[in-house]
Amino acid sequence: MRFAIFSDVHANLEALEAVLADARERKCTRFVCLGDVVGYNANPRECVERVRELDCPAVKGNHDEAASRLSPPGDFNEIAERAIAWTRDHLTDQDKEWLRGLPLQTRVHDFTAVHATLDTPEQWGYVFNNLDAAASFTYQRTNVCFFGHTHVPVAFVRDSVVRGGTFTTFKIEKGKQYFVNVGAVGQPRDNNPKAAYVIYDLEEGTVELRRVAYDVETTQRKIREAGLGGP
Q1: Which candidate, 129, 135, 207, places its Cα nearest to that of 163?
Q2: Are 122 and 66 spatial neighbours (Cβ–Cβ below 8 Å)?
Q3: Of 206, 202, 142, 212, nearest to 2 (Cα)?
Q4: pLDDT for 135-152, tens place per residue?
């Protein structure tokens, strides 16, 4: 069984469709969404629709929460807040209800999925280093947990100590725990413009980071036309 695990779509339809096509080409039969389907980019309804069509496990991200509630978020930067307000106006009531109903974390097969952290998922903390990861490991009940939120793919492993670093492909080893950031589909922040996601092969016990090119120019044009690009 091969899972395609993705996060932080952020309403980037071109990137999402490229990732889904790549995953299917690589014979992924299951999908998991780690949240932030909406925000920043110009196709929130379409991206919600694509993810819902997958009928896959999904968890809530902070942008999903902000865009689906009635009051303005107030805790984002100016560009993000403007995008949230725009997104809220362009989602249907059914879209918002679906986003509101997403859990903060879930267990899928033999692994865990969360958007931000396991210790306080509702506070949307960021995991950038070993100390940050250690807090989540304390609450991790499976060997592997996948997360997003930082838009930077990195894998942390705990045996006697917690270690972390970038990765391309690695094998899950018995007796160790893994806390794996799958990167971002819609807005990568690791100096690589390609969309990122992870393939988790349960039979092989491997985690593979995939990078996928997509039509960036079309995405940028839509952002400009929607007035989402800046002041």
Answers
A1: 129
A2: no
A3: 202
A4: 999 999 999 999 999 999
Structural tokens at position 216: 């960036």
3-state secondary structure the chain: CEEEEECCCCCCHHHHHHHHHHHHHCCCCEEEECCCCCCCCCCHHHHHHHHHHHCCCECCCHHHHHHHCCCCCCCCCHHHHHHHHHHHHCCCHHHHHHHHCCCCEEEECCEEEECCCCCCHHHCCCCCCHHHHHHHHCCCCCCEEEECCCCCCEEEEECCCEEEECCCEEECCCCCEEEEECCCCCCCCCCCCCEEEEEEECCCCEEEEEEECCCHHHHHHHHHHHCCCCC
Sheet with 169-171, side-by-side order of all strands: 30-33, 2-6, 195-201, 206-212, 169-171
How far apart CA 71 and CA 23 sit, in angstroms, is: 37
- String of b and e for 24-43 (b: at least 16 CB within 10 Å)? eeeebebbbbbbbbbbbbbb
**Which tokens go with 145?**
């947990």
The model's pTM is: 0.96
What are 100-134's pLDDT values in tens digits?
999 999 999 999 999 999 999 999 999 999 999 99
